[in-house]
Amino acid sequence: MESEHDEPKQAAEQAPAEQTTQAEPESKAPGASGRKILLGLVVAAVIIFAAYFATRRSPLISTGGSPATSAAITLVTSDRADLDCVSRKGIQGYNCGFSTEIISWQGDEQNKLKPYYTVDRHLYLIPGLFLDPAVAKRLQAEPSNKPREQLKRFTARCQIKVIGKLTGVRTRWLVNTAWSNPEDIDVATASDCKVEG
């Protein structure tokens, strides 16, 4: 038999249980919202890292393997030694002859980018153009000691494939002359050249 004095005791015993039951959702809520915050921070970090690496790669813009097209490149034989470019970056193993205005890149001619204009004034960086059989034959047909101003200009009609673009490239058209202002230039490979002139 319960007395009047037992009622407050039972109420006190039940109260903590009710408070505990009510408090549980509150204790779970901060944990759930903490997980949401953590997930949000992880997603934000991934986005920031992705954006950072995307901007780090910006000096090199890939064109995704464009098809080969015909280009008429205007040349004189002294271009093999005179033309050069400066870029700290390379593309697919190809590099300019200089990594800075004074530090040359020590690589094979077949991997060395040089600036060339087409007859319609489009500028490309092309590696090893003078190693193409038709262009090499034209090079051998002209005396190597002939002054540049006496050389006959010729055209190499080649199949070129743009493989990307380098930004901030400096060029020069004669040895020991000033470098140009930085510009963005398409990088292309050349093949199947036919020489005219």
Describe the protein:
The chain is α+β, with helices and mostly antiparallel strands and 197 residues long. The chain is elongated. Strands 1, 2, 3, 4, 5, 6, 7 and 8 form an eight-stranded mixed β-sheet that branches. Residues 1-5, 7-28 and 51-64 have low confidence and may be disordered. It is built from three helices and eight strands. A hairpin with a 5-residue loop joins strand 5 and strand 6.
| Distance separating the two termini | 123 Å
Poorly predicted residue ranges? 1-5, 7-28, 51-64
Residue share in helix: 25-40%
Overall number of strands: 8
Count of discrete structural domains: 2
**Element string (H = helix, E = strand):** HEEHEEEEHEE
Q: How many helix segments?
A: 3
Q: Report the sheet with the most strands, covering strand number, pairing sense and barrel closure.
A: 8 strands, mixed
Beta-strand percent range: 25-35%
- Give the averaged pLDDT, no decimals: 81
Shape: elongated
